[in-house]
Amino acid sequence: MKRIYLDHAATTPVDPEVVKEMLPYFSEVFGNPSSPHALGQEARRAVERARAEIASFLGASPDEIVFTGGGAESNNFALKGIARSLSARGKHVITTSIEHHSVLEAARSLEQEGFEVTYLPVDAHGLVDPLDVRESLRSDTILISVMHANNEIGTIQHIPEIGSIAREAGVFFHTDAVQTFGHIPTRVDELHVALLSASAHKLYGPKGVGILYVREGTPISPLIHGGDQERHRRGSTLNVPGIVGMATAVRIARETMDQEGARLAALRQILAEGILARIERSRLNGHPTRRVPNNVSVSIEGIEGMSALIDLDAQGITCSTGAACTTSSVKPSHVLTALGLSEDLARGSLRFSLGRSTSEEDIHRVLDVLPRIVERVRALSPSYRAGRSFETFLYPGWDRAEVERL
Question: Which of 236, 253, 270 is the last residue of a domain?
């Protein structure tokens, strides 16, 4: 049975070319890039080439790229580093209710340190209103953090508009671009950001490496102490193979992003429209058009998303119910409930995230399998069958006589 992998928002397979470029730095060019000898300096040159590649992709200076251990560290570094650096100037931070947990938990940690955080709401599509950002600004606001695109529903925020508001107010602006970096344009000057987080494993690079873009002149305190690496901004021996791998993944993304994005958007449309047409009482989560090319998030009434996921996995189809970092939680998604979904409907959600290996044949396989799984799960659900007997639950086009026979 062919396995169909549709969980690229959680992680991607490492591209073979990326692996090839990384291999020498495990056993041949293995020196510590902070060492002054030849082997260490050869590793240092590889790091700086990688830094230049990534900076060019962002439209940034190489000195503005700080290598980290991944997206979660980059987000924590951005929020805590700015807040602690500017605490004498102000203690107010603005973010949104649908951020990744690495931002939300960092914000809550700052609250315990005496900072105040405003969590902005979103509309039914998951968009924060830039006017809400403007109206939330205070004289002591020091940082705004709004994700570029949501990891669960794929909605792309109005980042350039928010960035302009932040710049006019003299407030530093951070965006979590983990889901967009390498998939849609993320030029920092066009986004008007002072800080941007990205992670290699979301674009066919290795796990355990990421970057934080820090615009020149942005004051930021180190999150990790212990050395003078990264211009004294992050202590720790650099992950040379990972850094080389990330740069290679970025180079490949630069060459393929536009074409691949268009291909995935077309497949996404087939999948989304097919699910909505074949499964009654299903809905698309997120904005219908302002979304990353590969994301299809749906909520289906009368099912548990985790049960459907297990059934799909048994059929060789891999997807998720939302963010990979929260799959052990019994709580419904904070993102979906922020959109106004009930807890039951939020629990009946599935996220399909497409990638380079996804074919149209794969999409049609999902559209063949998923409706049958939903039908079987609903048949075993007394609450769903009971709910369908009420006229208030009827959708246009349903025949009341047929419903009452159920």
Answer: 253
| Alpha helices for 68-176 (secondary structure H) | 71-85, 101-112, 130-136, 159-169
In angstroms, the CA 235 to CA 304 distance is 44
Name the nearest CA neighbour of 58 among 148, 158, 136.
Answer: 148
Q: Same domain, yes or no, for 325 and 375?
A: yes
> Of the candidates 198, 191, 228, which has an alpha carbon nearest to the alpha carbon of residue 78?
198
For residue 375, give its domain range.
4-8+257-405
Measured distance CA(319)–CA(200) in Å, rounded: 20
Q: Among the three residues 232, 253, 274, which one is the final residue of a domain in this structure?
A: 253
The gap between the terminal CA atoms of the chain, to the nearest Å, is 35
Question: Are 280 and 374 found together in one domain?
Answer: yes
For 156, residues 6+ apart whose C-beta sits below 8 A from its C-beta are 148, 149, 180, 184, 287, 290, 291, 292
Distance CA 283, CA 307 (A): 18
123, burial (CB in 10 Å: exposed 0-12, middle 13-18, buried 19+):
middle
Residues designated as active site: 325
Q: Which residues pair with 296 in a beta bridge?
A: 352
CB 253 within 8 A of CB 182: yes
Give, for all 406 residues of the chain, the pLDDT tens digit: 889 999 999 999 999 999 999 999 999 999 999 999 999 999 999 999 999 999 999 999 999 999 999 999 999 999 999 999 999 999 999 999 999 999 999 999 999 999 999 999 999 999 999 999 999 999 999 999 999 999 999 999 999 999 999 999 999 999 999 999 999 999 999 999 999 999 999 999 999 999 999 999 999 999 999 988 999 999 999 999 999 999 999 999 999 999 999 999 999 999 999 999 999 999 999 999 999 999 999 999 999 999 999 999 999 999 999 654 554 456 899 999 999 999 999 999 999 999 999 999 999 999 999 999 999 989 887 667 666 533 333 333 334 343 333 2
